[in-house]
Design goal:
The chain is built from 12 helices and 14 strands. By secondary structure, it is of the alpha/beta class. The strands form 3 sheets. Strands 5-2-1-6-7-8-12-13 form an 8-stranded mixed sheet. Strands 4-3-10-9 form a 4-stranded mixed sheet. A two-stranded antiparallel sheet has the order 11-14. The protein is globular. The protein is 42% helix and 19% strand. The chain has 2 domains: 182 residues, NAD(P)-binding Rossmann-like Domain (Rossmann fold, 3-Layer(aba) Sandwich), CATH 3.40.50; 127 residues, Orthogonal Bundle (N-(1-d-carboxylethyl)-l-norvaline Dehydrogenase, domain 2).
Length: 321
């Protein structure tokens, strides 16, 4: 099985580098300065154990790759970029190859299923940074990260078994899940905090607004009849987040997008998922809706990261009311 990692950011970069270090056949798809840096000097991966540079083929577009029947595609871009990626894969004739969604949120899998028959979900537990072209950092120890993977909407198969073996041999903890979306909804609930931590600097305020966003979300999921895994996956194999000498961790993927000035955040597919479900089931979700509006201010640069106050979110809730 050859692995095509589509989106060499923090998560995709860490996965591609580890696969390369382990001698597996991996191809990357990247863009912009990241693409140029990897082509010129490889991809540097820093972990608590040290820094190594991976060298693997990297392309600007799927059309530059001669796809094989034994390929597996790992989508590792953020959700706002998923549709374009799926359309590019579809246009060049990718069809039966498995498509694994190594992404936050729960919107990518049903979107991929519109184009491809063999779609898989993956819950990603891998705190990683990408803020400098050609460099990524991953902060877990003793393993680099953990994944739950399974077929979408449910089940497991030989593709899951093969990818699990490859990832485990490359330094990851991987569990096969018959109902992987239950795991992904658990991760979605934790990701509701991403925009809160990016907007607020005060930890007490972060906890306060996350508690309110979480309460809304759990009520909506319950009303929608959606079950989520209530176990805490982080202690698996005693994984802990630690420091890397010479680096300061940027933070969540949302904050990284703001720092890099991408102009686009995934909040509409995290907190926005709760807003969508609330509207479908006749429930108001004022906190999560306000956080989606707040993300627009942060993504546009009109509001600096971690500059909001308690009154900022309260006023957005009041303004919408």
């Amino acid at each position: 099985m050859r692995i095509i990692v589509y989106g060499i950011g923090a998560i995709g970069g860490a996965i591609a580098a580890q696969l390369s270090f382990s001698g597996h056949d991996v191809v990357g798809i990247a863009r912009g300065r990241q693409l140029d840096a990897i082509r010129a000097s490889g991809l540097s991966l820093s972990t608590p154990q040290g820094t190594r540079t991976a060298h693997f083929p990297v392309h600007a577009d799927p059309a530059e790759i001669s796809f094989r029947p034994d390929d597996a595609v790992l989508l590792t871009m953020k959700t706002p970029d998923t549709l374009g990626a799926l359309q590019r894969l579809n246009a060049i004739g990718v069809s039966a190859q498995p498509i694994f969604c190594f992404q936050n949120g729960v919107a990518n899998e049903p979107l991929a299923l519109r184009f491809f028959a063999n779609v898989y979900g993956a819950t990603v537990m891998l705190p990683a940074d990408y803020d400098t072209p050609g460099e990524v950092a991953a902060y877990f120890t003793p393993k680099i990260g953990a994944f739950d993977i399974g077929r979408y909407p449910s089940g497991t198969d030989d593709a899951v078994k093969k990818l699990r073996g490859i990832l485990r041999a490359s330094g990851f903890i991987v569990d096969r899940r018959d109902n992987v979306m239950s795991s992904k909804y658990r991760k979605l609930l934790s990701n509701l905090r991403n925009i809160i931590d990016a907007a607020l600097a005060d930890t007490e305020l972060q906890r306060k607004w996350y508690a309110r966003a979480l309460a809304e979300a759990e009520a909506v999921l319950t009303a929608a009849g959606i079950a989520w895994d209530k176990t805490d996956a982080m202690p698996r194999e005693e994984l802990t987040i630690t420091t890397i000498p010479g680096r300061t961790r940027v933070g969540s993927s949302t904050l990284q997008s703001i720092v890099r000035g991408t102009g686009s955040l995934e909040t509409d597919f995290l907190n926005g998922e709760i807003v969508l479900l609330g509207r479908l089931h006749g429930m108001v979700t004022p906190v999560n809706a306000a956080l989606c509006r707040l993300s627009i201010e942060l993504a546009s640069g009109r509001m600096p990261p971690q500059s909001a106050g308690d009154d900022t979110i309260a006023s957005m809730i009041g303004g919408a009311g």
